[in-house]
Predict the 3D structure of the following.
Amino acid sequence: MVFDFSGKVAVISGAASGMGLVFSKRFVESGGRIVMSDINKETLDKAVDEVNSIREGAAYGMVCDVRKYDEVKAIVDFAAKKFGRVDITIPFAGGAETRMLGVTEPDFEKIPIEVFDWSIDVNLRSQLYFDHAVFGIMKEQRSGVLIHIGSVTGAEGGPNVPGYSASKSGAMNGLTVSMAQLGAKHNIRCVCVSPGPVMTRASMANMKTLLGRAASPEEVVNAILYYASEDGSFYTGINVLIDGGRHIMWDRSI
Ligand SMILES: NC(=O)c1ccc[n+]([C@@H]2O[C@H](COP(=O)([O-])OP(=O)(O)OC[C@H]3O[C@@H](n4cnc5c(N)ncnc54)[C@H](O)[C@@H]3O)[C@@H](O)[C@H]2O)c1
């Protein structure tokens, strides 16, 4: 799919790996400029070099822990100062608490409460932080797209990931709808993209879908690029499940 993001500026988190990195490459290949942020400086620096090898000076890297509003505000303000505008924000950083924090304890009640706090903060609160940090800038320029990243796990739950499921579910939808309502009169759209299993790591191949496979990161990023682009200009306030039909796969023996 070919997009034209010439003159557009994006700010994202979780840019050092997975879909954040794939998005950064595609966005810059399509003419855009980007502030890539992540909590991991080493992998971020490498990722920014990779993206700048596509077009030198198109990407800046900034370390940001999305649990801290001041750090989110700082990357958004940096982009506005450096490039004069911010058109798209995408908080990619996130993941299931048990995997991300290496928790192996099987009993819910024995898992420290901080593990679930982490999940709500990184997966949900950060999306609101991005919206809040950029809203004034988009309002002033009278345009912008707020992308949220959900998950099919928000719809189907998961006994090992209650924090993740909670953070990617109803609250995320409510935030998406509210930001779409708030933004409409300022020409700001808001769309939540909720993937099923994506091959950002090999283990995702074990998660079943109706189509019999996990998505490639590119398949999901293509959709994100579409909703963020002018081609997707009439979409707002929706939660798009890109899950190969997993949410309607009642018979998982097939
Ligand atoms: N991969 C999947 O199968 C899948 C499915 C559904 C939804 N998602 C969602 O898509 C998003 C991206 O997933 P992915 O698999 O591409 O990611 P990933 O696991 O490859 O990368 C996540 C990145 O977030 C960064 N990060 C972690 N904590 C952070 C923090 N506090 N502040 C800033 N950065 C932090 C990590 O360093 C890492 O670079 C996540 O929100 C995830 O929940 C992924």
Observations:
- The chain has one domain: 9-248.
